[in-house]
Amino acid sequence: MYFIVVLLYLPAVAIAQSLVLIGGNLKDDNVGIWTTMIEKAGGPGVADIGVIVASSTGNAEGIKAVDNFVKKYGAKAASIVSLTKESALSQEVANNVENYTGIFFVEDSMESNMIDILRPSGVDTLVLKSIKKVIDKGGMVAGDSAIMGDSVMILGGDSMNALVLGTKFEKSLSGTRSPLVYNKSGGLGFLKNYVLDSHLSDQGREMRLIRTLLDSKNLPNIGTAKGLGVDENTALVVSNPLSKPIGKVITADVSVSGVFIVDVSNVPAESVAKATYDQIPFSFFTVNDTIDLTTEEVIYANWKIPIAGEEWFADAIPSFDIFSSEQPSQWRQTNRRLIDCKEVNVTCTTISSVFPRVQVFFDRLQAVGFGADIPNDPAKTYVASFRNMLASIKPIE
Ligand SMILES: *[C@@H]1O[C@H](CO)[C@@H](O)[C@H](O)[C@H]1NC(C)=O
Ligand SMILES: *[C@@H]1O[C@H](CO)[C@@H](O)[C@H](O)[C@H]1NC(C)=O
Ligand SMILES: *[C@@H]1O[C@H](CO)[C@@H](O)[C@H](O)[C@H]1NC(C)=O
Ligand SMILES: *[C@@H]1O[C@H](CO)[C@@H](O)[C@H](O)[C@H]1NC(C)=O
Asked: According to the model, what pLDDT value does residue 173 have?
């Protein structure tokens, strides 16, 4: 009798559960991400994927995703599950959803219908419960990283507003610049202890993530000091997200994009009032790096080597609009250069007609960098990863 119980129990724990956090703007030709989603949902010829659409504008995207999964990348099947507030409560829809081996949330606008429909008032609907069963049984769940967490969910805002004005809970501030708004009820709840964001480097969202963490880290139950943001057309594939999360960075074939991780545990909250922040430690991981999201241990892709002592450039290049949401990836680009040059710090500034100018200092004295040219890339694109870079920020008097 005992023996039978063990046999029944074992397969359930042996299967890896997979969460795919996508940084937005996933391209149809991103072989790495599409094939990983299929593999984690059972593999080609087995994967049966439910494509969740929660808005009328998402339908075309949904059809394209089904086409990619089945025709382009070899899933056995994929079908659209178009949800409304009513159908998300339906037992019949929930039963159907439970039988998929993978779930893909179609990218949503920042006014996220997905949350309103699947988790109204912060409570899981029947369909969301079924989606959680899919992953519990060893399946795959993928979607825009910004909506996937258990912690507060950022709804909108840019870094400059975040730095100077801080966060609001309601979408009430008017004006052309977009205020930082987050929701205290959290996202869909597939990963704990991180505030998540997407389009990270591409839209210069580093500071809005940092400020959200500083403003919310002491909230009861939901507060956390750790943040994680994924770049566009990039994914962090997280195995066992709710028990022992380990993430691997996947990008397009030749790409310097990656995943930004920050921890504000030791940054005093009073720094916020003066828009003066001291020594915020952050890291950036690139293609095929593996990060243990509990211990923060990192295994760099095996072809990357330590940068220390082998820095390529003489000098760092400051950015004159470090929080820019229009000029892409200023923060990423500045730090990629800094980790690979002989100087140890760089001072950047902002341009803003509305706010006081600020200076941002990056310091790599305590940082560890790993990098190399991407293997088999004729253009020899160099990618760099690093951990424990320090950012300090203060207004220019
Ligand atoms: C789900 O799969 C099981 C086992 O294959 C099957 O018996 C059941 O009818 C399926 N449910 C639905 C709603 O398709
Ligand atoms: C926050 O999310 C909850 C749960 O989905 C929802 O009821 C509430 O309206 C949201 N608040 C804002 C300001 O979006
Ligand atoms: C990353 O890992 C995958 C799977 O192991 C491999 O196919 C791919 O070539 C690797 N990419 C790079 C740039 O090393
Ligand atoms: C930057 O580093 C240099 C040493 O390389 C040091 O002299 C300088 O004071 C540092 N600047 C700042 C603003 O930390």
From this structure: 47
Taking the C-alpha atoms of residue 376 and residue 40, their distance in angstroms, rounded to an integer, is 26
Phi-psi region of 279 (alpha: psi -120 to 50; beta: other; left: phi over 0): left
359 lines ligand 4 (CB under 6 A): no
Ligand 3 pocket check for 287: Cβ under 6 Å = yes
Measured CA to CA, the distance from residue 309 to residue 307 in angstroms comes to: 6
**The ligand 3 atom nearest the CA atom of 374:** 13
Take atom 3 of ligand 3 and give the residue whose Cα is closest.
288
**What's the CA gap between 208 and 159, in Å, rounded?**
4
254 and 309 both lie in a single domain: no
CA of 324 to the centre of ligand 3 (A): 31
Quote the number of domains for the chain: 2
Per-residue pLDDT tens digits for 52-69: 999 888 889 999 999 999
User: Do 196 and 63 share a structural domain?
Assistant: yes
Please tell me the predicted confidence (pLDDT) of residue 276.
83
Does 204 lie in the same domain as 334?
Answer: no
Looking at the structure, tell me whether residues 177 and 313 fall in a common domain: no
Q: Which domain holds residue 71?
A: 18-263
Give the residue, out of 79, 81, 97, 99, with the most ligand 1 atoms within 8 A of its beta carbon, to mutate for a pocket test: 99
Please give the backbone phi and psi of residue 323, each rounded to the nearest 5 degrees, phi first: -95, 15
Average pLDDT over residues 126-147: 97
The CB of 120 under 6 Å from ligand 2? The reply is: yes
Contact 48, 101 (CB under 8 A): yes
- The answer to whether residues 326 and 251 belong to one domain is no
- CA of 345 from ligand 4 middle (Å) equals 6
Question: For atom 9 of ligand 4, which residue has the closest CA?
Answer: 345
In the listed set 232, 263, 294, which residue is the last one of a domain according to the structure?
263
The residue from 208, 239, 263 where one domain ends is 263
Ligand 3 pocket check for 301: Cβ under 6 Å:
yes
Task: Please tell me the pTM assigned to this model.
Answer: 0.93
Asked whether 358 and 394 are in contact (CB, 8 A), the reply is: yes
Q: What is the pLDDT of residue 4?
A: 46
79 lines ligand 2 (CB under 6 A): no
Residue 290 lies in a domain: no
In a domain, 287, yes or no: no
Any idea what the CATH number is for the domain that residue 27 is in? 3.40.50.880
- pLDDT tens for 286-299 read 999 999 999 999 99
pLDDT, tens digit (0-9, with 9 covering 90-100), for 178-209:
677 888 999 999 999 999 999 999 999 999 99
366 CA from centroid of ligand 2 (Å): 40
| Range 369-394 average pLDDT | 96
CB 66 within 8 A of CB 51: yes
